[in-house]
What we know:
The chain has a three-stranded antiparallel sheet with strand order 1-3-2. It is mainly alpha-helical and 216 residues long. The longest helix has 26 residues. The chain folds into two domains: 155 residues, no CATH class; 53 residues, no CATH class. Helix content is 42%, strand content 10%.
Amino acid sequence: MTKKTIRYNGNDVFAPLNFNLCPYEDIEFEETKNKIYDDFVEVFQENLVSLLKELGLKFIELKWFSPREYNYAGDSLDLIISIEDKSKLKTAILKNKNKIDELLAKNTSYDGYMSLAVFNVVEELKCLKENEGYKVDSIVLNVLLSPLNFNENFSITDSFINSPTCESCGNTLEDEEVNICQKCIDESSCTKCGKSGLFEDSICESCFRQRQFSFN
Ligand SMILES: [Zn+2]
Ligand SMILES: [Zn+2]
C-alpha cells in the first residue's frame, strides 16, 4: 500500500518563518519565489530530511502555494511528507509533551477563533493510535521541527530579487526593456532649446545638428 502524502502550510510548520510575499512591493515575484525555494533547500533540506526520518516521517517535497487572490491566504512554501513509523513519531511527541501542550493551549485560547488543532498531546496520541487517516497536527509538527531554528537561520528578504528601477529617479520600471521611466522622459528637456523629451547628451536632435553644422 502506498503511503498517503500530507501537505502542510509552510507558514504553520516552519513558523515563525512566513513566506507571504503580499506585503512586499518592487520585487520580481516569480524569480524571488524560485530564489527563496533554492535558498531554503540549501539551508534546510538535508537536515529537514534527516530530522523527519528521526520523527518517523518521510520528506516528499517542498512546494510553493500561491493564492490567486490575497484576501484569505498568502504564499507559503509547503511541506509534503508521509507518515512512515507511528511509534517513532509517538516517542518524539511524548518527548516534547510540555512544549506542545503549552502551544496547543495558547492556540485554542483565542477569543472566537475556531481552532482546527487538537487540544493536547493526549488527544493527538489518541488520533495517532485510532485514526486510519491520521495526520500530525501542524502545531505539533512545528514543535517537532523547531530544532532547525528556522527564524535564526533564514530570512525570506535575503532572497528577494528586486524589480529593475529607473536609472534617473529610482522608481520601479513597468517595462523591462527600458532603463528610464516614462515620467523622467516626459520631464526631461533639451538643455539648449527646452524641447521636452529625453535626449542623448541632454540635447535634442535638431540642436545637435545645428551645433555640428556650426563646427564646420
Ligand atoms: Zn524615472
Ligand atoms: Zn534642442
